[in-house]
From TrEMBL:
InterPro entries found in the cross-reference section: BP-dependent_transpt_permease, MetI-like, MetI-like_sf, OppC_N
Compartments, as annotated in UniProt: Cell membrane
Pfam families the record matches: BPD_transp_1, OppC_N
Species: Winogradskyella sediminis
Keywords on record: Cell membrane, Membrane, Transmembrane, Transmembrane helix, Transport
One example of a Gene Ontology biological process annotation: transmembrane transport
Family membership: Belongs to the binding-protein-dependent transport system permease family.
UniProt-listed CDD domains: TM_PBP2
Cellular component annotations (GO), alphabetically ordered: plasma membrane
Gene3D superfamilies: MetI-like (1.10.3720.10)
Bilayer topology annotation: Multi-pass membrane protein
PANTHER family, A to Z: D,D-DIPEPTIDE TRANSPORT SYSTEM PERMEASE PROTEIN DDPC-RELATED, OLIGOPEPTIDE TRANSPORT SYSTEM PERMEASE PROTEIN APPC
UniProt protein name: Peptide/nickel transport system permease protein
TM spans (from-to): 20-43, 165-191, 198-220, 226-245, 276-298, 333-356
Length: 364
């Protein structure tokens, strides 16, 4: 039996490899996953949530460049390497976009950046503020690949860090939905009778409530926040898993291997977990891939409504909310870039789900 299962797995894997769009989408998902985990390594602005604001250069076009003066602070950050790598660093320095600067004696005179050909305010700072009076090390040309948002933050950094919420909410939501769905579906399908009727009533009631409305209700009950959204989305996606598991178990419990397991005296828990569930795992993989995509869309909708991830945390849905009015103000890319990112990730999961469905179809 083990050799047969391994052979079927190898055959399914070979069929999946032949599906170009499935493999291509899987590579995209892996790349986005790596970017989301190591977002602060790739992000030009490695401060926490890429929240370094420069209001004087807000809403600049992609490829915008400006000279940036960094004024060092006396406050030292005591964060470790792990915290900096995965959660960003606390930037205690002050960054000032400038148009020009001059040095006279021990004073650095600079002109702040101003848009539309205007001249910014002129200010002075003592060279002693810089270590060893080396002011040149604190002036560099800063390039913004995706431009800046309405607060003057680096848009590329916000996009990269915002991928974390959209990517990981799929894992957490699918994990919660699988736990609840497998439990409820297994009990309903295996025992039947009044237990099945009651669980199906709960499933039908939950199914009848609009998903977004149910998520909003759970989010308001748990409170606004990062993990609350993850839990809320997961608690609304278990019904489909439960229905599929119930139907599969109703069919599988009449099979000869289940009858043999009962004759050998195995308890119900072992029969369900060791014999039935491994044989119905194929449909669950396909549903999980589809639920990944659904969770991403739901989270984006919640963030757009303002009850998802809260500022200053970066989220693709929240970025669309902040900049959707720029579509008619001549800078549509501020809303289109995160929208395209959501579309790309959702489409990748859907294509992988379709490829898995074809690969696991024993009739094909």
């Amino acid at each position: 039996m083990s050799h047969k299962n391994n052979s079927l797995t190898i055959l399914a894997l070979q069929k999946f490899k032949k599906n170009f769009w499935g493999v291509f989408s899987f590579v995209i998902i892996v790349c986005i996953g790596l970017i989301s985990v190591f977002a602060y390594v790739f992000a030009p602005d490695a401060s926490k949530n890429a929240n370094q604001m420069h209001l004087s250069i807000h809403s600049k076009s992609p490829g915008f460049e400006v000279r940036m003066l960094t004024i060092p602070s006396d406050i030292e950050s005591e964060e470790g390497l792990f915290s900096t790598l995965f959660f960003g660093e606390t930037n205690t320095n002050t960054e000032v976009p400038i148009q020009s600067y001059t040095v006279n004696d021990n004073t650095l005179t600079y002109v702040e950046y101003a848009s539309d050909g205007l001249k910014g305010q002129e200010k002075q700072i003592e060279l002693s503020r810089f270590p060893n009076s080396n002011y040149e090390a604190y002036i560099d040309n800063r390039s913004f690949v995706f431009g800046t948002d309405k607060y003057g933050r680096d848009y590329l950094s916000r996009i990269l860090i915002g991928s974390r919420i959209s990517f990981f909410i799929g894992f957490v939501a699918v994990f919660i939905s699988l736990i609840v769905g497998l439990l409820m579906g297994s009990i309903a399908g295996y025992y039947g009778g009044k237990i099945d009727a009651f669980i199906m009533w709960v499933i039908n009631v939950t199914w009848s409530i609009p998903t977004l409305l149910l998520v909003i209700a759970i989010t308001l009950a748990l409170g606004k926040g990062f993990w609350q959204v993850f839990i809320a989305v997961g608690l609304t996606m278990w019904v489909e898993v439960a229905r599929v598991v119930r139907g599969q178990i109703i069919s599988a419990k009449e099979m000869q291997y289940v009858t043999a397991a009962r004759a050998l005296g195995y308890n119900d828990y072992r029969i369900i977990t060791k014999h039935i569930l491994p044989n119905i795992f194929g449909p669950l993989i396909v549903i999980s891939a589809a639920n990944f995509a659904a969770a991403i869309l739901i989270e984006s909708g919640l963030s757009f409504l303002g009850i998802g991830a809260q500022p200053p945390m970066a989220s693709w849905g929240a970025m669309i909310k902040d900049h959707y009015n720029y579509i008619i103000l001549g800078k549509p890319y501020l809303a289109l870039i995160p929208g395209l990112c959501i579309m790309l990730l959702v489409m990748a999961f859907m294509l992988v789900g379709n490829a898995l469905r074809d690969a696991l179809d024993v009739k094909a």
